[in-house]
């Protein structure tokens, strides 16, 4: 058996070559799952935003989704918090102050950081992918 660590934003490649995906934001692990589980049932707001920002043959639009905001400066990072929450447009301000934040196993071998995925509604997304 051999293992490969592939660092990319190209989720199309990930869907074709990986078995397990670890999604990171600003050096922080935010979600880990099998490729199939991650593409069909993404939980963390960054994972959902990342998947939504990728082009799709099924999407009829000239514009790609852009994740609002910017990555925090290294000098401003508070690693005890979920670093992506400040960029989530549909979250309430008080939720951005929540200290998270451990990884929680939400189903067999599917881990997600924090609790935001349970407490807040996400925009509808139709996501397809994963190896067949």
UniProtKB/TrEMBL annotation:
Keyword Transcription regulation: no
InterPro entries, per the entry: ABC_Ni/Peptide_Import, Oligopep_ABC_C, P-loop_NTPase
Record-level Gene Ontology MF annotations: ATP binding
GO cellular component, one term: membrane
Gene3D superfamilies cross-referenced by the UniProt entry: P-loop containing nucleotide triphosphate hydrolases
Subcellular localization, as worded in the UniProt entry: Membrane
Family statement: Belongs to the ABC transporter superfamily.
Identification of the protein by name: Murein tripeptide/oligopeptide ABC transporter ATP binding protein OppD
Biological classification of the source: Bacteria, Bacillati, Bacillota, Bacilli, Lactobacillales
Gene encoding the protein: oppD
């Amino acid at each position: 058996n051999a293992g490969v660590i592939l660092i990319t934003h190209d989720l199309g490649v990930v869907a074709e070559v990986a078995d397990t995906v670890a999604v990171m934001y600003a050096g922080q692990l935010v979600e880990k799952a099998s490729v199939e589980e991650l593409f069909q049932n993404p939980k963390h707001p960054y994972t959902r935003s990342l998947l939504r920002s990728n082009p799709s043959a099924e999407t009829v639009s000239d514009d790609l989704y852009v994740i609002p905001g910017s990555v925090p400066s290294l000098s401003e990072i508070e690693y005890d918090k979920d670093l992506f929450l400040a960029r989530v447009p549909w979250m309430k301000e008080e939720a951005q102050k929540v200290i998270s934040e451990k990884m929680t196993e939400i189903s067999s071998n599917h881990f997600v950081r924090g609790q935001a995925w349970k407490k807040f509604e996400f925009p509808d997304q139709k996501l397809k992918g994963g190896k067949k």
